[in-house]
């Protein structure tokens, strides 16, 4: 694809995080100890805080929309779907407090994105630990202007196969609200402590666990096909171990006890982002999912994200110009119903 051809379409990043400016006193809505909150320094840097503990150093685009848009211009990204940092989910809090917290976070995300409404798509968060409050919150947020909802892949031992969480997903389908699923709260232990192994090993495993669990539990059978569902980080380990899961389904009755189809039969029921960081890995992901089921995702603005948005897609072997256009923006435009953005996925795949 030539530069002229590429610049004629929109580059849309579906996986980009925000931590709006929330003070320690405001964070006491969620917990009496005050967490999480954002400490901004005079030199323009910041620190994500968990109570009195420093959680992670961060930079201005995370909370400053003007800096974010300037960075997007430099990086060649036209549109970002902006979702909260998973530290902000609040799933362990009392549901009433979590509901009030989500209202605050969602209002701040809306205000943040309102600074560049053609460039920034706000995604809300919900108190997923309570079905009624989660449904009420997502409906209210969608009416206020949020373009989707961002959820974690589990709440303690409750995964997306949980009856109430499945009911929430059905509600999102009924309301036409796209759902972005992000892994979080990874397993710990001494073996996972060094070298960010919780992020490098735990996050991909969490997402594979979620997708495979939904397939084998028959959850996709209970969800409307209209549901727009996307898993971050390329679906974790799912695509690369799908053959193992299918083999087990065919040869062990205990594996297929609750699922009428093998796991590979459900790849058309969800999307994934492209954040796999290796063109060879992306090639396999596209082969497994189909070119209309993968969307650009960078994990902006964190250091573990793709530093040159779209470079893995552009360098992926064997993709046609039309398929690259889908991955860079066309699929996301359809996922978020963005009129006039990207390229028509259905037409290019027909």
TrEMBL record:
Family label: Belongs to the metallo-dependent hydrolases superfamily. ACMSD family.
Domain of life according to the entry: Bacteria
Annotated pathway: Secondary metabolite metabolism; quinolate metabolism
Protein name: 2-amino-3-carboxymuconate-6-semialdehyde decarboxylase
Protein source organism: Streptomyces cavernicola
EC nos: 4.1.1.45
EC class name: lyase
InterPro entries assigned to the protein according to its UniProt record, in alphabetical order: ACMSD, Amidohydro-rel, Metal_Hydrolase
């Amino acid at each position: 694809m030539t530069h002229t051809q590429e610049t004629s379409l929109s580059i849309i990043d579906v996986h980009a995080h925000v931590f709006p400016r929330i003070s320690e006193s405001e964070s006491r809505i969620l917990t009496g100890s005050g967490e999480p909150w954002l400490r901004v320094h005079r030199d323009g840097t910041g620190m994500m805080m968990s109570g009195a503990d420093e959680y992670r150093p961060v930079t201005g685009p995370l909370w400053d929309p003007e800096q974010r848009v300037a960075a997007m211009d430099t990086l060649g990204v036209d549109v970002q779907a902006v979702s909260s940092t998973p530290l902000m989910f609040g799933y362990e809090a009392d549901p009433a407090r979590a509901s009030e917290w989500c209202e605050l976070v969602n209002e701040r995300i809306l205000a943040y994105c309102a600074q560049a409404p053609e460039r920034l798509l706000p995604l809300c968060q919900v108190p997923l630990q309570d079905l009624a409050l989660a449904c009420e919150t997502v409906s209210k947020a969608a009416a206020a202007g949020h373009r989707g909802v961002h959820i974690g892949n589990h709440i303690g031992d409750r995964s997306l196969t949980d009856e109430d969480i499945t009911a929430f997903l059905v509600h999102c389908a009924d309301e036409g609200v796209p759902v972005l699923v992000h892994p979080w709260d990874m397993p710990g232990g001494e073996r996972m402590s060094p070298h960010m192994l919780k992020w490098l090993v735990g996050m991909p495993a969490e997402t594979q666990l979620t997708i495979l669990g939904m397939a084998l539990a028959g959850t996709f059978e209970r969800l409307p096909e209209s549901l727009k569902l996307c898993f971050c980080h390329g679906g974790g380990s799912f695509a690369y171990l799908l053959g193992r899961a299918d083999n087990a389904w065919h040869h062990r009755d205990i594996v297929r006890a609750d699922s009428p189809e093998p796991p590979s039969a459900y790849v058309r029921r969800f999307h994934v982002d492209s954040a796999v960081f290796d063109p060879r890995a992306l090639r396999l992901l596209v082969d497994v999912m189909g070119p209309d089921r993968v969307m650009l995702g960078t994990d902006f603005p964190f250091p573990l994200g793709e530093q040159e948005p779209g470079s893995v897609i552009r360098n992926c072997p064997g993709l046609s110009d039309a398929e690259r256009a889908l991955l860079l923006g066309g699929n996301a435009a359809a996922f978020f119903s963005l009129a006039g953005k990207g390229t028509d996925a259905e037409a290019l795949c027909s």
